[in-house]
Amino acid sequence: MSEIEARIRVHVGDITRLAVDAIVNAANTSLLGGGGVDGAIHRAAGPELLAECQSLNGCKVGDAKLTKGYRLPARYVIHTVGPVWQGGGKGEAELLASCYRRSLELAAGKDCRTVAFPAISTGVYRYPKDQATQIAVGTVSAFVSHNAVPETVIFCCFDQQTADLYQQALLRNGGSA
Ligand code: ADP
Fold this sequence. Notes:
O-acetyl-ADP-ribose deacetylase (Regulator of RNase III), contains Macro domain; Macro_dom-like; Macro_dom; O-acetyl-ADP-ribose deacetylase activity
């Protein structure tokens, strides 16, 4: 296993349960909460999270903003806004890659050693899972290979099927290493 591969893990479970330095939220541009992983994070973090989010003036698609984790076991939440899938011709791939990069930059700025990502845009935003997984793995691998922090990145998948996609993408990505 290469050094880069050793720094990227796949986990099956609920991201709100992870005691890591930062978890990433697949938020919407309002940052005021929503369904899916966003709703789960706000429920677990408590009302103080919404109060901090209300002071942030929203977030652009492809960008990210950081808050405290409040009642979560994670110290920080990095809220990023993935693109809504519109067929692939509206810059979705670049915007999704930007979500991963910006989140990692914010995590590095707070010296986070371990960061966990959900599968951004693959729920209500309908991004095809195989393509989203390729972008997630490619972007995170590139970042990790150029930066010492975060040391470890976890892809937190809600189900085993998604985790299998990540494992396959990681194997392909590191296949020549
Ligand atoms: P988006 O609006 O960016 O598509 P969603 O929250 O609808 O965001 O879905 C993103 C992904 O997060 C989906 O693959 C969904 O299965 C997953 N997900 C939902 N809840 C959780 C959770 N508590 N922990 C980890 N992943 C979750």
